């Protein structure tokens, strides 16, 4: 979250640049070439730094401390209980996704299946315009820009989204009434319909 909200500008910029450059390189190179080249670059950098610090220690210009000690001491292990919790969450998410797809494909609810059909129809046009790698690059850039933009312009964004949500709700209500055979819209006046005046 600190990376996404740019708490450390230098680190966030480095991560975003590395991700975008790595994804862009996949347009011209295979993923094996990209991974191996990046690994070689990282190894050349870390080995050079390690030799440099060792050389300084030999000349008594340094304390001899490992330059990457903080990364080596970082605890990334998981206890058995934590692993079970994460595994259970992953299983629940997977089963929920399978259950949702089953209900959509086998038309448990006609209206929801029609919405899914329309969404897949739009996705076919999206697939004709760009590939998955382009969408992934756009998603990474959006991940590093939209949260910060929302944090700074929250009131304006909430107002704009609220107006869009009202329009979407009205369209959904119209389509739902159309699927149920039409009929007048529900009466929104308190207490129901008012009596007719003579």
In short:
By secondary structure, this protein is mainly alpha-helical. The chain has helices at residues 9-25, 31-58, 69-72, 80-105, 110-129, 132-152, 154-179.
Strand content: under 5%
Give the termini separation.
65 Å
Overall mean pLDDT score?
Answer: 84
Helicity range of the residues?
A: over 70%
Shape: elongated
Biggest sheet overview: none
Q: Mind telling me the C-alpha Rg?
A: 27 Å
Q: What is the number of E strands?
A: 0
The oligomeric state of the chains shown is: single chain
Query: Structural class, from helix and strand content?
Result: mainly alpha
How many helical stretches?
A: 7
Q: Regions with pLDDT < 50 over 5+ consecutive residues?
A: none
How would you describe the overall organization of this protein?
Residues 1-198 form the Reticulon domain. Keywords: Endoplasmic reticulum, Membrane, Transmembrane, Transmembrane helix. InterPro entries: Reticulon (IPR003388), RTN1-4 (IPR046964). The protein is mainly alpha-helical. It has a domain at 9-60 and 95-154. It has helices at residues 9-25, 31-58, 69-72, 80-105, 110-129, 132-152, 154-179. The chain is elongated, with a radius of gyration of 27 Å. The N and C termini lie far apart (65 Å).
